[in-house]
Amino acid sequence: MDSSTHFLYLTLFISSFTQVLPLNVVMKTSLMYPLTCSDHTHTCDSYLYHISKGQKLEQVASLYSVNTSNITPIQHNSNLDYLVSVRCACKKDNNNNAYYLYDSVYKRKPEESVGYISNEYYSGQVWYVSGEDEEQLIMHLVCGCLENESRKVVTYTIQAQDTLVGISGLLSAKENEVEKLNTVLTKDPNYMDVGWVLFVPQETNKIRASKKWRMKTWKIIIFIVLPLVIMVTFLVLFLHRKRRGRKIKNDESKVIRKKINIGKTTLENHFFNVDMEEAASNIESEKPVIISLEEIEQATNNFDEARKIGEGGYGSVYFGIIREREAAIKKMRSNKSKEFFAELKVLCRIHHNNVVQLLGYASGDNHLYLVYEYVRNGTLSDHLQDPLLKGHQPLSWTARANIALDAARGIEYIHDHTKARYVHRDIKTSNILLDLGLKAKVADFGLTKFVERANEDDLIATRVVGTPGYLAPESISEMQTTSKTDVFAFGVVLAELITGQHALARDKQEPNKLKTLVSVIRSIFQHQDSAAALEAQIDNNMKGSYPIEEVFKMAETAFQCISEDPSNRPEMRNVVTILGQIVMASIEWEASLGGSSQVFSGLYDGR
To answer: What is the pTM of this model?
Structure first.
């Protein structure tokens, strides 16, 4: 870092703005020394360490103008903070100095000062602020690049009780490398002040290298020194494990029944005469993982509101890290035992790429807990309705077609490819989750029912279940539930993918009335010019970039799925076939555009 970097700006620190045009505010720089640009590296991927002050994942994504998929939770003492992946670039500040910076837009409230915004929302990492008006501010955040592209720099703000050793361990860095990159602030490594901003170079290959060394060492031992001892040890372990297997098998049901107690009161006293003997035996055969309540509480920091990522009639969902895996933990009230056992039984038996994975379950403190894999990119509904406000980029057409195919495969699997046929009964866009590669996974099996394959039409529900806007007519009028009720709901999902509209919304012409998306799709195919009527309803977020023939085919499929008569609706296996053809044609269409940045979905990373 050259000497010109080390001088301090005169502190220009304001608590409110008195002028509208233009705005240029420099932050106090005794806390940070930006990295000057290298001649060889102009842009790179880097991380900004966000000190959480109760913001949810979507709020953090909005602050930094990124998708939620760019954010990784990180545990720091008892707090859950975030690493935000950003594209760092060499830029000149208002004094014409070239530094590594990342820009994000912030909508300022009248009572907020620049200093408050920097400390409250950006962990004190704002180098300077600019903007054409006093509301929309451009926050220029310090970041870092190294010539060695295999390593990434983390911009980290020192917190209370931090030490150089602790920071290095937290971010997988070497102390001497941190000192080299922060020569001014680490002159005395034993003294660091809260609020100082450090650049921490992560050692990305550290773990891998150590593993290779251990492997090499063990090979020498195994093949040269102790071959006979190892063979004898394995033989003894094998015989011992085989003998213990019988005992474990006999004791499993006792363990499950013991763990599933709530304090001194068993679940069967709470849950409306659920047959716990039968439930335990059914669950036992599929061997779900039992997780202790202590692990759940530790993972969620005692159900900290900042870790809440969802809420509904069943209870709340929290983010946590359990046994080194990111997890979504559903906390259900004790009167939701039927939904609890429904999900537990179904997800223990279902293992499919397009169905959310159950990691385990727990009980205690008058609550039930289901632990799922954490699907990082949120729900499909978040990506369709006002996606930019929720930190997501609008979905391209090809992305939508692939998501439709993924979800259809998940539903087809529970209908046709399991030992028992299941009906989900609550298919909707908020129950379809997306991972980092936009692969869709069907979730929330709390209302799922088992039906006989031979006479599934005989299943009569005792109450109407599901979500308004997705309910098939026979579910309401006749209380009948079949696989065709899922097909109906999936038709509504297809309509949402095409239009970006809600399944049920207020009628613009008659605000006192509700309008269903089902009625919109039906009106399209009652129109003399169905293609023109369809184009008028296509989601504007796609900005006209779509193959109209394939959109029309998907709309036709949606129209067939929402038929009044269940017998006229296709089976999910037929829907999968049609969507597969639409996806292939859409890929060809996209390729013909030459990968235009406005159209190309970038969907196939990791697929």
So the answer is: 0.60
